[in-house]
Write a structure and sequence with these properties.
- β2 and β3 form a beta hairpin.
- The protein is α+β, with helices and mostly antiparallel strands.
- The relative contact order is 0.13.
- The termini are far apart.
- About 9% of the residues have low confidence.
- The strands form 2 sheets. A 5-stranded antiparallel sheet has the order 4-1-2-3-5.
- The protein has 12 helices and 7 strands.
Amino acid sequence: MTTVPPPPSGIPPAPAGPPAVSPMLVRLAAERATGALLRDHGTLYLAEGRVVHAESPAAPGLDVLLTASGRLERAGWEEAVDRAGARREVGRYLVDSGGMADGELEICHLGALFDAAFFALAPGSGPTRFRYGVGHWIGPVRPVSAAAVERETRRRRALLDHVWPYAAVDTAPVVARPPAAGQTLTRRQRALLASADGTRTPAGIAWALGRPAFHTLLDIRRLAAAGLVETPQEPPAVTSGAVPSWIATVAADPDIALLRRLRDALEASL
């Protein structure tokens, strides 16, 4: 047996990899555990250490994504659940009954899985629990490794921060602002802005439109960066003569309000 010598004195060890998004998920994957990982913002289902499904209140489920897009009739989905849910074979039934092609179901399911897993793995203060042996009624579709779920979750977090590094817009109701002169909108952006009525959060908009929650959130951050949405907040009361009212508004929402005013000032000077 060849013995690997230790590194020479004075040479630092190789840097460790990125911290685990969920240390318990990593441990359960190593154990090849089967069951449900319950977290503050959702649940991941594992089979022999691989993630087979995910759910989160923040993300529309596979049923919403399929029926809202018109790919599957609501009656067809309900029939699959009624006939195969108890056997945990809903996915298999959709394919065998001709409702969906096998590959199409895999693609749609993976999209819903990664979408829900992103929110389920969000940082939280509550306890993380694992219930051994629990399965989901959708049944096996396309398992993915826990490492792939963690890697995709980190990638999505970095993408959000790159687009608009202010997380206040993620959970607050958003309201649309009129585009500036010459600012064009895509059909997808117009649909999002039509739903940004000051009462819906990005998650609420995703549910209303039947779209993946992460992609909706990413679009909302892009709209915020373009000055097309803001988070309505009631400015604090200001004593007369103390400071201008617009300063109070900026103080209430320093990220979006300030950048919006800077943009408007630049446009007015052109």
